[in-house]
């Protein structure tokens, strides 16, 4: 390309960006979705350029008009440049955990509905207009993609329900993948059919198409999950440098898409979407909250540029594609619109209720279904895929024109008919209004806020010496509004306790998540701990939202359980004598408990200051009682670990306070710099000093399990009188064992495999309904070895225990060598047996 050509291209793109920027406020003032206006402007520019080029009225604008009219937009280039960005950004910004709640209906809309819509359009158009069915199916796949941008913008502007927005967004990111994969398969089948002279698909072609589609979708999902996880692991290595983190994710979107699509032969679209979802679900715990917000802001801007530019560029070629439209084409477009609606309606009204019947999804109301049906707008991706057909070699000119004209006309139909009537439809269905509970809460929030504003106005008037009459006038206006709202609102009378409690628990979980993110922002928590805490707070939120108190408390009861990874680390310790994974898990658990304790302490004033005025005294007291129960549970678990590892607890608390001090120090320097009291050089020097200190405390201190055999033996009086030689021999035979709370060490009836000596902690002996506690210095398990019979009791750890284990064979050899030690064991065993017999009688 010449220098003049490059200059012209850059200038054209810059002018288009100016137009895109100017359309945004205009769309807001007109109450029209920006994509609808972008399409209108793009078509208008294309039509005007064609008029100026071919008119005899003037030739002044011929060069500029020719550049627009003959603008060459290669579909594959546009897809490769813009699509990875749009897909990754949509997946990155979506709430993955809420998406999972509705995954069944979303998959139905994104996969099944695409296939049904493609089939409905293909069979219908082929039957009515006599076009070969493969060509009609290809057209169906092209128009099966939906563009959620305009629809979601309308939803957010008028306050549509969150679930409706989530369903539409979730469908869009996945149905693009399905439709493009289907398009690729059908395009290949068409080219093959034309090359071999086959006009109608046969069973072999159908099977090959389904096989290619399945491999592309499943392979893309697996590849996206692996690469997304790799991106998450790389993010912490960038030292919290915001531009570097954003750059890595942008590069990852392209690498994943291109490698999947053109490298390993899977769906790059699916790979990019799944990778974005993985980063969205896990990335927040691996970078600071501030950096995460910056990352999302960067991606929002990139997606705005990419989405707007692809829309305008695609719209510019619409006049060229629609230049010779006739009545037959108009009828084809209207028929396509009808068959597309039929395909989606079958999914929404016949298949979607089946999911509810099978308990795979909560019910989607008829009003939601109507909006989803009518809100299936098509956009730039449909136009780009249609251009791909026009450019494809090996297809007939008639088929190319049929696909291009019909697809383009249908896009314009959905934008200018569905897009302009969707807002009135939502209002007519009442989906832009709050629920009765939401309306009462709105009035309550408004009353509390107006009262606070009134106080703030009076305080500002006193501080800035404003005229009392002016202060009184403004304050009284807020007071009147607050009184009017308060007189119409009685939260306790208008909303049932169950609903108010659910609202309160959701608010509590959201606040707890914010507190965890604050701790993360201060760099006081490790990545693994942040990830687990965020998952727990999300579980608390969903439990409170879906099941109220029962769901919330169910999560509370399981929050302190040892998860699968912990159990696996414990298995490695017990079976393979690998202590490091268990020590790391224990350290993370210690940190998690400390974070829970801090969060619960912060939540108590939140209940009094926010929930009590909002939801009433009774709900506040219920929530406070639940918090007190959680606090006792956490305190018990934390105390158990603190007793076992007091030095480590002190190290964690020291690290936490040091982090707090460093954050306050940095905040102080920021303030002084903003006030002009620190120049840039001095500020940078002070900042580097703090960050160097932070880097020394980044890693968690290492937790020592305390399983040194010599140290554990010194705690046992039983071995105090052994001679040096025998002590050394016993030390070689003993194996240290760490036991978690509530772990069953062995059960009644098990074969006796050895004797356990308690160096620290306590265990419980369970014989039928009797409970006997053994503590430091005691031992158990000897009776089965002395009597050569199965275990007579069940033994469980009451807390964290450090034990020494002596294998059965080693125990017997040791007893033969030291008769005094044997006598000690036998006397204790006889006493225990007598005790058991007396208890049984």
Distance N to C terminus: 102 Å
Q: What would the average pLDDT be, to the nearest integer?
A: 81
Number of DSSP helical runs: 33
Shape from CA axes?
A: globular
Second rung of CATH, namely the architecture of the largest domain: Up-down Bundle
Strand order of the largest sheet: 1-8-3-6
**Backbone structural class:** mainly alpha
Membrane topology: Multi-pass membrane protein
GO biological process, one term: regulation of intracellular pH
Subcellular location: Cell membrane
Pfam families: cNMP_binding, Na_H_Exchanger
Keywords:
single chain, 841 residues, mainly alpha, Na+/H+ antiporter like fold, 6 domains, 4-stranded antiparallel sheet, 33 helices, globular, RmlC-like_jellyroll, transmembrane, membrane
